[in-house]
Amino acid sequence: MPTSRTQASAPLARTAMAFVLAGGRGSRLMELTDRRAKPAVYFGGKSRIIDFALSNAMNSGIRRLAVATQYKAHSLIRHLQRGWNFLRPERNETFDILPASQRGDGANWYLGTADAVYQNIDIIEDLAPRHMVILAGDHIYKQDYEHMLQQHVESGADVTVGCIAVPRLDARGFGVMHVDPDGRIVAFMEKPKDPPGIPGREDLALASMGIYVFETKFLFDQLRRDAADPQSQRDFGHDIIPYLVKHGKAVAHRFERSCVRSRAESKPYWRDVGTVDAYWEANIDLTDVVPELDLYDRDWPIWTYAEVTPPAKFVHDLDGRRGEAIASLVSGGCIVSGAMARKSLMFTGVHLHSFAKIDGAVILPYVDVGRGARLTNVVVDRGVKIPEGMVVGEDPVEDAKRFRRTEKGICLITQAMLDRIAP
What we know:
- Pfam families: Hexapep_GlmU, NTP_transferase.
- Helices cover 23% and strands 28% of the residues.
- It is α/β, with parallel strands linked by helices.
- The strands form seven sheets. Strands 17, 18, 20, 21, 23, 25, 27, 28 and 29 form a nine-stranded mixed sheet that branches. A seven-stranded mixed sheet has the order 5-4-1-6-11-8-12.
- The longest helix is centred in the middle third of the chain and has 12 residues, at 216-227.
- The relative contact order is 0.12.
């Protein structure tokens, strides 16, 4: 059953620290991550992907947060500084941004996910959290980590691993585990080419969500042991978790035990938006009458940087030139000027000029769509200027020559792509 959200306090969460791993590029998002890390990619009209992991920690009662950054970190760091600067040390709250930096031993970059925590042991020790909740910063979901912390303590586990059942072939990009009837992990494989199915449900595999709970001192001991191993890849999935499956007690935590759902959400929601197709689908799904992910849930808000903007504006009311949006999300600062938006998502400051039409469009902030343009099934990167009369999404051959077109027919448009088109 989904968790109740009427809990006034979360005692284990209050003595825990959430450490978010946000250094990855996310290369399968193609040009969307040319200038930003995957956790910094926009999602849902006004948020960034990383806001979901951080909001889950806050809503769970965790008040000590840290984010390890590495690849193209400027956009992410700026967002964190603007949107997550409300935590106060005098309330025993902390928020640390931890870029890869010179630590005195010649190392500069984080060598892996485990190394990102290992290089910051001194900072974590000063805060003295009882437990560490290690989080991936690149998934969309709502979860109460207090329930996972409680299971960890009650089970006596060395590590508790968050997991979810996914289609077997989709599990090739995740850690995959076998568990016994008591939930103990008996085998763990990182990104197997042929993932094993769940017994009795061979079409599904049990995938790691990239969420781990440790007692802090025990984690530090394991990180130091791993750092002394010259064969290690310094990675939780490749090294730390398989070692503990073999030599310790690793326990699985099923997502359905701690997922957070509003009355509008019929089933647990978790998405890896790591490809252009998956990213487009997850955003466009939000335009449904009752979407699977409820962003309007006031009991479990998704915190983010709230940019100060004027209200969205719709102007002109003539046949063929009427500003309107149907089944769409329109953010602050947008102007729909005699144009039509259908089943689309417009981030902050988008301007649709007269006679333009968009359908199935994910338009990132401050895009200008020229007069008479038609865009169908597209993702448009931030700040792009779509020329007057441009048509995308109606001629697959022509689209593939000009833009990044996916197997499912979604076109990713960046300014660099437009600049390469001969006038």
